[in-house]
Amino acid sequence: MTLPSAALRLLLAALLTLAASCGKKEVVEAGSPLPDPAFGKVSTKTFGCPEMQGVYAWPPVAGTWAGRGPTNKVPGEDGIPVPIYGGEMQIWVLEKGGEVEIRSRSINRDPNYRTTLTREWSFRIFQKNEVSCKANMLEFAARPATNPEEYGSKTAMRSFKLARLEDGSLAVGVKNLSTGRRGAIFTWGDTSAGSIPAPDGAYWSWSKLTQLGPGDKEPAPIDASTGIPR
Prior knowledge:
This protein is mainly beta. Helix content is 7%, strand content 38%.
């Protein structure tokens, strides 16, 4: 069967693109590795990074998870940067000599609903060798993600950044890097042929968290049912 001239031109263009990209590690990015400028200015420091420690409110006031997030994703996937259960939460960031601990727990404003989740913390600890300071932001080493198929890849790695903003709030940027993706050599309508390596994909999402307190000591639980006789 003879290919139409237009299809032949598309096939040749695809082959030329493949040949030109051989040996190159290409990454296609979606989103930005920097906080949304609409969040406000990032705090700066002459040496090192601004302090990220503090107690912050979930859900975010702006960004990906403000309001309704993507329906096929959940905040805090794989507990990175910290488990998120939905609803209102306290997020507590602690810095200890280069080590960073991030905690989360629920807020309950219903006096008729009793739960232990307002007093028990979920947490992740990131060792000094997993944390670096770059461009006034803390960058955290990537950890394996358990859902690479959602990004059309064989493997996925998840990392994140923290940026302190001048108004005291915290910008949290999560990066999903998918590798081992495949693409078709040639497509025509609903038909595709062949398989070639596709570029890695980096997907960024940012959220802005309002500050609730300095984080120098454990915050009190927020639970409307506390003290009610059981």
